[in-house]
Design goal:
The protein is mainly β. The chain is built from 1 helix and 8 strands.
């Protein structure tokens, strides 16, 4: 129940933010994920979706859901699936209109299908590049470093992930 309420709260916050402004562009898209290192024994693959709200040509807020399959935390024997809901504030550096590097910082909520870790919040930093393939299609690649803090068990779960995907303007 805690997961459902958290997901609903994050989605309704972004929907309100996005729909409240008529001039706000709303690109949505999908991404693939590769995660490794940190507190993971093996690498993990997954995917997800995202929606972005632009405040200006450079500043944006992204809500993303990512799913990692068969993650194994160091010291455990069981694979688990991880759902990550991240809200990230990003700033695109002023270079070219077609090609642009960006950096961001945000918060993430992690849910695990395992009893070895409790669902909880964490933080992330990211950097990436985006390329405008067409007028309303953007290809992006991004590196994220994330840490999740478990308030119940005082554990920490660190990992890095690479995302690549497409965004479409509607």
């Amino acid at each position: 129940m805690k997961r459902i309420l958290m997901i609903a709260a994050v989605l309704s916050t972004l929907a309100t933010f996005t729909l409240a402004r008529e001039t706000l562009e709303k690109p949505m898209g999908f991404h693939g994920v590769y995660a490794d290192h940190g507190d993971m024994d093996d690498s993990a693959f997954g995917g997800g979706v995202q929606i972005t709200g632009y405040e200006s040509d450079r500043a944006s807020v992204e809500l993303a859901w990512s799913y990692l399959m068969d993650v194994r935390k160091k010291g455990t024997r069981r694979d688990m699936d991880v759902h990550i809901i991240a809200l990230t504030a990003r700033y695109q550096l002023p270079f070219l209109k077609v090609f642009g590097p960006y950096a961001g910082i945000g918060a993430a909520y992690h849910t695990f299908d395992s009893s070895s870790l409790d669902d909880d919040f964490g933080w992330l930093i990211c950097g990436g590049l985006q390329y405008n393939v067409l007028d309303k299609v953007v290809l992006f690649g991004e590196f994220r470093r994330s840490t999740m803090f478990s308030s119940a068990s005082s554990e920490q779960f660190d990992y890095q992930m690479v995302r690549a995907g497409l965004n479409f303007w509607f």
